[in-house]
User: Which sequence fits this backbone?
């Protein structure tokens, strides 16, 4: 049922952002050590990713990410109408999750972030992180090993969390949702646009990498 798939994308993205924002606020409350804050945030995010991918993959394919949906549209694994519904649900879910996390920690429902994230290094980092994610998604599909997605995708996010300067946003819906929380995981609206452009560049790069590595049987 199409509505069920769209709701799964909405709910999954909302849960993801609740984890992203909520664990970031909790980390700030627990310690002033930035490294420890990052670790707390990372553990929460990748654990939630594993959970929602496992639960929602049979329902919607567990995209939770507009660039993943656009990649599936390019490969004709999803039709344009469904893709629009998915992307709308992802942005709406991300916003909902952010608001809910803010309220859980007695913050204003919406308070715009002042956390500036700019620089060529961060732009390159987001291209790399997004390209890697897209390549992994399509390699798993091409190799008919999507059952490993709940392990492999969180593994990539964990690696990129510590190996990239941008802290691996790699998702426009997540990026713009994080604008509305002036907390550890937040980002300014200006920076969000820059990140989103990098992510859209990473999409075709990831598709090309997956294509080059594809082995016909």
Assistant:
């Amino acid at each position: 049922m199409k509505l069920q798939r769209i709701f799964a994308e909405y709910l999954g993205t909302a849960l993801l952002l609740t984890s992203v924002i909520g664990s970031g606020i909790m980390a700030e409350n627990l310690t002033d050590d930035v490294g420890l804050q990052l670790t707390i945030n990372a553990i929460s995010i990748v654990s939630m990713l594993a959970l929602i991918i496992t639960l929602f993959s049979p329902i919607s394919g567990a995209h939770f990410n507009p660039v993943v949906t656009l990649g599936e549209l390019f490969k004709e694994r999803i039709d344009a109408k469904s893709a629009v519904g998915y992307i709308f649900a992802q942005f709406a879910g991300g916003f909902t999750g952010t608001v809910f996390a803010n309220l859980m920690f007695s913050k204003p429902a919406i308070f715009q972030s002042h956390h500036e994230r700019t620089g060529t290094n961060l732009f390159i980092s987001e291209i790399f992180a997004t390209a890697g994610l897209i390549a992994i998604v399509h390699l798993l599909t091409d190799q008919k090993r999507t059952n490993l997605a709940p392990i492999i995708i969180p593994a990539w996010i964990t690696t990129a969390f510590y190996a990239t300067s941008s802290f691996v946003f790699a998702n426009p819906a997540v990026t713009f949702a994080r604008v509305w929380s002036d907390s550890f995981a937040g980002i300014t609206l200006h920076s969000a646009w820059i990140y989103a452009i990098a992510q859209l560049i990473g999409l075709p790069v990831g598709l090309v990498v997956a294509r080059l590595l594809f082995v016909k049987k």
About this structure: The helical segments are 2-30, 34-60, 66-74, 80-104, 120-142, 149-163, 172-177, 189-213. The radius of gyration is 16 Å. DSSP finds eight helices and no strands in the chain. The mean pLDDT is 96.
